[in-house]
């Protein structure tokens, strides 16, 4: 009986693999994607019920891949190998995106910069800050993490940002940090940190062009949304929050 069950599973696996080779993943349902993936962590078990249990618990394929490892392990049938396989995929995809970008040098504007930086936050669960430096021809000289933690600790890493800008003889800079919560509106601390960094870079003749706040599905440009004009127009910040709130109300008026 066990042999018949094993042959049935093997036949199903071969059919699903064959279907992927012929068609790719576009026609697969989310549970079939998980089922196919779990073949490589669970060799002798029907992974279809397990795929459904994962989706029932976490709501979507993205929810499964974004779930903490300790939560994945609570799902019946998920062991350490399967949990690690699921967790490593977003990180691999992020590295894939970064690898693709290695030959991309020209950053034509804020939209290019946002797309370039957004991919580097894929799978990130902790807040971190990225800095990108450009030369006068808008070619990327440096792009990497300068701090792990909130942008409110700008006084800790502002020296590092300035050192990088000087070392690479940069002319322009872009800043980005993520909000794992999904909220992309800046806090007062985000704006204060931006002002501090912009002033520090200005002292070494580097222009902070924009600061992006990034979530998993969206991003906010402080420049395009109008926050920059308040942040950079004065050395003092006392009235900034009030002015921003008022301008937001005006934008919403018909």
TrEMBL record:
Lineage: Bacteria, Bacillati, Bacillota, Clostridia, Eubacteriales
Species annotation: Caproicibacterium lactatifermentans
Listed Gene3D superfamilies: 5' to 3' exonuclease, C-terminal subdomain, Cytidine Deaminase, domain 2
SUPFAM superfamilies with a match to the protein in the record: RuvA domain 2-like (SSF47781)
PROSITE patterns hit by this protein: MPN, UPF0758
Name listed for the protein in its UniProt record: DNA repair protein RadC
NCBIfam families named among the record's database cross-references: radc (TIGR00608)
Entry's family note: Belongs to the UPF0758 family.
Keyword Electron transport: no
Pfam family, one: RadC
Keywords: Hydrolase, Metal-binding, Metalloprotease, Protease, Zinc
MPN domain mapped to chain residues: 106-228
Gene field: radC
């Amino acid at each position: 009986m066990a042999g018949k069950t094993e042959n049935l599973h093997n036949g199903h696996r071969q059919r699903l693999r064959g279907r992927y080779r012929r068609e790719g993943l576009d026609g697969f349902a989310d549970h079939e994607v998980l089922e196919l993936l779990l073949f490589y962590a669970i060799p002798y078990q029907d992974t279809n019920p397990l795929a459904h249990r994962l989706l029932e618990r976490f709501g979507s394929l993205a929810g499964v891949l974004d779930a903490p490892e300790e939560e994945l392990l609570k799902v019946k049938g998920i062991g350490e190998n399967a949990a690690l396989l699921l967790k490593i995929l977003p990180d691999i995809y992020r590295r894939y995106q970064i690898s693709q970008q290695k030959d991309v040098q020209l950053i034509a504007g804020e939209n290019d910069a946002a797309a370039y930086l957004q991919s580097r936050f894929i799978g990130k669960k902790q807040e971190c800050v990225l800095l990108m430096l450009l030369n006068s021809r808008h070619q990327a000289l440096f792009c990497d993490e300068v701090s792990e933690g909130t942008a409110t600790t700008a006084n800790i890493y502002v020296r590092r940002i300035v050192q990088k800008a000087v070392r690479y003889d940069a002319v322009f800079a872009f800043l980005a940090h993520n909000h794992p919560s999904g909220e992309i509106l800046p806090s007062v601390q985000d704006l204060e940190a931006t002002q501090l960094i912009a002033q520090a870079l200005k002292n070494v003749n580097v222009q902070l062009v924009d600061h992006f706040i990034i979530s998993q599905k969206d991003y906010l440009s402080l420049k395009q949304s109008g926050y920059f004009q308040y942040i950079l127009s004065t050395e003092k910040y006392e009235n900034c929050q009030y002015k921003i709130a008022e301008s937001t109300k005006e934008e919403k008026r018909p």
